[in-house]
Description:
This protein is of the alpha+beta class. The protein folds into three domains: 1-170, Alpha-Beta Plaits (2-Layer Sandwich); 176-232, DNA polymerase, domain 1 (Orthogonal Bundle), CATH 1.10.150; 252-388, Dna Ligase, domain 1, CATH 3.30.1490. Helices cover 38% and strands 20% of the residues. The chain has helices at residues 19-27, 52-56, 65-71, 82-97, 119-122, 125-140, 152-160, 175-179, 192-200, 206-210, 214-221, 224-232, 265-285, 318-331, 359-378; strands at residues 11-16, 36-39, 47-50, 76-79, 103-107, 110-114, 144-149, 167-169, 252-262, 288-299, 304-315, 338-346, 349-350. A hairpin with a 2-residue loop joins strand 5 (103-107) and strand 6 (110-114).
Amino acid sequence: MGIYTMTERVVLHMDMDAFFASVEQRDNPELKDKPIAVIGSNERTVVVTSSYEARGLGVKTGMNKFEAKRICPHLIFVQANHEKYTRACQKIVKILYTFSPDLEVYSIDESFLDITGVIHLFGEPLTIGRKIKDAIKENLQLSCSVGIAPNKLLAKLASSHHKPDGLFQIKENEAQALLKDLAVEELWGIGRRTKEVLNSIGIFTCAQLAGADTLLLKARFGTWGESLKNMARGKDDSSVMPYGYEPKARSIGHSMTLPYDIRNQEEVLKYILELSDLVARRMRRENFSCNTVAVIFRYNDFQTFSHQKKLAYATDDTRRIYLHAAAIVKKTFLTKPIRLLGVSVSGLIKAQGESFLFEEDRRLTNLNKALDLVNERFGGAAVTFASLVNHKEYDKVISPSWRPSGTKKY
Ligand SMILES: [Mg+2]
């Protein structure tokens, strides 16, 4: 099969169709062919996924229960069962592994597979795609969509364009024509915020973005401006990152859905302190320091974004992490009420015993150790910062950025 040379990559993207909802319909015959919505367990929960029957009637991910019920009165709510989905995900991963070891589990229901090196074993890319779909159908009674292309960006586009139960290949020489009239927000990685900025400077289609002035894009987006242009031309050289070979920079993070939406910066900072403390404690327990702090924001309309800050030197101190996270918050112009906040640290390095560069560091470490000890002994947050005392309990929900353990976070 000489058509595919080693320099021409072939990447496959597998995306389960309405994953959670399909698992529920599979396991409960009464839900078959019915509009169902999978929801979380807390009071403020929203539609996590819905069946295609529900989607056809206007139900969308992110709607609250009342909205969804108003649009679709016969909608059946099913509470999410994450263990079940994780088990299904593990089975799918096993199947994908039998085709190629170059597997990146991107999320609980999406994976990338570099099949460049296995075409001589299993046949043409579309044949491989078909075999994967059949194996998943046979073993799990679930359907998925498969996209095949020379890179991840286009493979993702290919799978999304023929959903559900799709199988579609975009070849290198077809990309240009396909992208030409495509709206920029259809590209993987261009969110609502980026779309809005692009639209505001008269860029709506990929062709317009591909032809845009690089300096103008750089002025708006910094170094990312150039990447955006490449994306619009269907270029993407990011590699499929196999399970277990992710960059060492794993992260530790905590997020929480707030008991009510907040706008007030002072209130935001209270939660940021609490989250910084949770993160720093876990980091110390695992004997790590970090050199990057990020804050994750989610507005009440579910628009989610994060900003991060690289530190001058590594730390595991609650107060330092808080100060950096707070600086991020103060620099971020919040346009809508906040529904969820998160703090995450990355660039983790193993703490180096007891050698301290500064006397202050030594004292901080001892203070933190003492606080951790007391908290461990008495459970929860016995000793905590004064501003946290009047805090109500909050819900912890599984976040959309959740990954099966061992896979990429954020
Ligand atoms: Mg999916």
